[in-house]
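User: Predict the full complex structure for these chains.
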Amino acid sequence: MKGGRDLDIQVKDALNVLPVITYRWLGVNQLHLNDITRTVKSYTKRFILSNSDLVKNISLIDKSHYDELNKENVGYGVSGELVSLAQEAFNAGALVQVPPKTTLREPIRLLYGLDRENDMLIDNNLIYVGQGSQLTLVMDYFTNDDAEAFHNGSTRIFAAADSQINIVKIQRMNDSSFHFDSNYAELAQGARLNLVQVELGGAKIITNYISKHNHADSQTRIKSIYLGDGNRLLDLSYHMQHYGRDTESEIDIRGVLKDFSRKTFRGTIDFKKGSIRSIGSEIESVILLDKTVRSDAIPLLLAEEDDVQGQHAATAGRINPSQLFYLMSRGFSEKEAKKLIVEATFNPIIQLIPMGDLKIAINNEIQRRLVNE
Amino acid sequence: MLDNHSRSDTIPVIQLETNEVDIGHEAKIGRISDQTIFYLMTRGLSEEEARAMIVRGFAEPIAKELPLEYAVEMNNLIKLELEGTIG
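Assistant: Here is the predicted structure of the two-chain assembly.
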């Protein structure tokens, strides 16, 4: 832990506040969780799985160097207090610095495993990718036992001109863990960011992604899948900010809810003045498997510029009974048939993950949660 | 959006507490394409008339549900609103 001091955490602030507030009585402007208190502990596991010298443990870098990197502070994340915690009291995290015109052939993997001995992870990740460079980074958050783990993380990405960054974030923690994840990306001219997000476990999952397209021709594509089961609470927020000309963003979210799970999707496409000829689209589709689930969607479209194309779509519904009947007539049980349909929805996104072992782990987790229980 | 002084915020909220539903929502934002305006102008319409025609066409599915006198009134209002907006 930086500075080695003991810190008490209490999550007090509103989380994932909408960029534009709507009627208060709808109860969707923000999320409040008042019952979470923790004391910051150290995290002792090795988490960098890469031989590349371009990735360093951020806790081991010089304080003055870190302060220099951290000086440009922008508003982002799940909440101000949780982002400050990740920036000031982190106990893990990686600094990735890819020089210009460098292509990393092998993905960099960060394995953030939690268990009873290491049940608190506060990771602060800083990623700089130089002009014309390419990077694939896989971040895997998981638990090894039934520990009530707490994760609060911040990931900041700075993409120089014409760079390409692929980020894969997988969360498969146990059903009593908390996951707060704040992400911010700043894209220069011609930069491309592809993000794959997989949320399969946890008790309370609060994530926030902001992508700032400052310069022309920059592009963000987010593909995300989530699974809600048990009493899980999911609050997923995405904010695509378009400042430069000819910028593009795409948000494609697919989810499944069962049991007593609750989910809120907040997606914003924000065309600022000057974002001429920019394009943004967001799609959220959710399959509801039980009557007892709750699903909220707030897809925002904000435009200060007329020469833009923005669209959003949200769909929610049950599995088509005739599809289910057909599969069951072929010998599948109802649970297996539902799992097949869910897999068909998730697979196009799972296939984007560059590692075979992770694809298998994700499919096994979906199998366990949907069929075996 | 017809000019770059306007601002549009769309904030739909979908709240579901059951799975006995099939819900869909869609919204789009954009400007009138220059090609469409150009095509209409090659047919002899002024730019102002071309824009008014496109806006009337956009509102038509709603306008045709209105009683005739209201639909005529709405079309006149669209024409009046767009008069003098070019140049």
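Residues 47-63 of chain B form the longest helix (17 residues).
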